[in-house]
Amino acid sequence: MPSADDLRIVSLLPSATEILHILGLTRWIVGRSHECDYPPDIESRPVCTSSRLNVLKSSVQIDADVQTLLKATLGIYEINLEVLKDLRPTHIVTQDQCDVCAVNFALVEQAVATLSDPQPQIISLQPHTLSDVWADIEQVATSLNVHAAPVLASLYERVNVCRQKTQHLTAEQRPTVAAIEWIDPLMASGNWIPELIELAGGRDRFGKASHHSPYLSWDDLLEADPDLIIVMPCGFDLTRTQKEMQQAITTHPQWQQLKAFQQQRLYLTDGNAYFNRPGPRLVDSLEILAEIIHPQWFDVHYANYAWTSFSA
Length: 312
Description:
12 strands; Rossmann fold; 14% strand; 37% helix; four-stranded parallel sheet; 2 domains; alpha/beta
């Protein structure tokens, strides 16, 4: 284990960078993925990955390109080996959970095998639930010889504030919620999102905790007709989500048949910064959901920059 002064950490996914940051390790991050953008000063670090996707395309085109790349086993992301070699990392933090979210684990192993000795330690994260995220924070802390307990205690405290306000709600007091992770084609949110919705006082209609996000048919969404719809596209900030939803309303007039649309309970969020990053800001995501679902009990702190009501 290198001493603190010798640490040279490369983070290959945004949530890992945020975990390193909350543990006080930002100064030792020497390289990042092309998607790491928080904390803001991390963008000064060299970029070690790139994407084969053109993220400026529409939702439906991006989804089609993802499926094509996965079927061709090309992988969506690439590692810049020359940058990685120049950085001489002691640790690389990556993931082995989703090949669409970040560079896949096998590619990281191949890259590390080309580095000169001593080879860096790979810290691989595998989050599917909230408890997995807490375990990942603990794993990173242990691997880098720092303490996670104070950080986790603070996060747990914020979660418990929400839990205490919603845990006694009856089913009738919990509105049904459709969390939408992709707009076209429709995809519901899975993994940790159903847990967050329950903690925030709602009932998730489509996602299953610890399961991957499922595609969703229009017939199923129309039949369920949830009380609230919360759109949180993976990789899209709030401005991009607003743009995509405006287009979706034109392309799929079924949106206008939904109760949530008609009653102005269709909400758009910054899915990229919050809901789709399995790190400490999932607690922010919980607080966002709580103030959307039960504004009578939760103060509004995140409106207009993290979420907004949809207006056609």
